[in-house]
Amino acid sequence: WLVTEDHRFRDRCAEAVARIADVHVVSIADFLVAVDSLALDGDYSPSALMGTDIAVRLAEPGEFDDLARRFLNQRAGESFSEFRSRLHALAAAVPETRLTVFASSEEPLAIAAIRSGEVLEVPICRVRRGAYEPTLARQVLGWLRSQVNVEDALAIRLTDRSAGRWVVAGLQLEGF
After folding, report:
1. pLDDT at 62 (0 to 100)
2. Listed residue (125, 132, 130) closest to 164, CA to CA
3. Residue 58 main-chain phi, psi, to 5 deg
4. For each of the chain's 176 residues, which pLDDT tens digit applies?
5. Helices 80-92 + 64-71 axis angle, to 10
6. Which helix (H) or strand (E) holds 138?
7. β-strand partners of 98
8. Which residues contact 123 (CB under 8 A, 6 or more apart)?
9. Distance CA 163, CA 165 (A)
10. Which H or E run contains 121?
């Protein structure tokens, strides 16, 4: 492992370093998620989301920049570098925070970060833009609501100010 927050170095040199020295060049968040997944020793198993082929899984090392690109909310004034830094910080806060990805076989469709506690905090809740955005938002919100029972929490608080209009619209419909 070579752990660095220099994303330019990672983007330009990671493949060459891996080929030459069998060393993985990763961010702090990537490293912590990889180590945490090793510590879980396979305890986390993806599940189907409401009878669809959408799988719910933990974010994987190396995909944070792609997730930042896909779920950046420029309409809300977010910058890519700020959102990427936020995703990396949340991913690095394991095991208290889990960055969860909802994905079809082709691509990520939604992300949600959950911070454990008596009240589950959801600092990130985003769905992919498109025709199915309202449906995806309601499915993700329903899944988040079920996590209160799974985590044995009392309540859930969504704090993502840039969640998007369909997530916000679905809050009342899903009983938040």
Report:
1. 85
2. 125
3. -75, 150
4. 888 888 888 889 888 988 888 888 888 877 777 766 655 544 333 343 445 577 889 998 889 899 999 999 988 889 999 999 999 999 888 888 999 999 987 789 999 999 999 999 999 999 998 878 888 888 899 889 889 888 889 999 999 999 988 898 888 877 77
5. 130
6. helix 133-150
7. 114
8. 86, 90, 97, 113, 115, 159, 160
9. 7
10. strand 119-127
- Between CA 81 and CA 53 the distance in angstroms is 32
Q: CA 77 to CA 36: how far, in whole Å? A: 32
Residues 109, 135: Cα–Cα separation, whole Å: 11
Please give the Cα distance from 140 to 167 (Å, whole number). 9
Q: 107-124 burial, b for 16+ CB within 10 Å, e for fewer?
A: ebbbbbbbbeeeebbbbb
Note the pTM of the prediction, 2 decimals.
0.70
CA 63 to chain centre: 9
Edge-to-edge order in the sheet of strand 55-58: 47-48, 55-58, 97-103, 108-115, 119-127, 155-158
Find where tokens 């009392």 sit. Answer: 154
Q: Helix axis angle, 28-40 relative to 80-92, nearest 10°?
A: 30
Give the residue carrying structure tokens 């833009």: 129
In this structure, which amino acid lies at residue 151? E
DSSP annotation of 125 reads E
Whether residue 95 is preceded by a cis peptide bond, meaning omega within 30 degrees of 0, is: yes
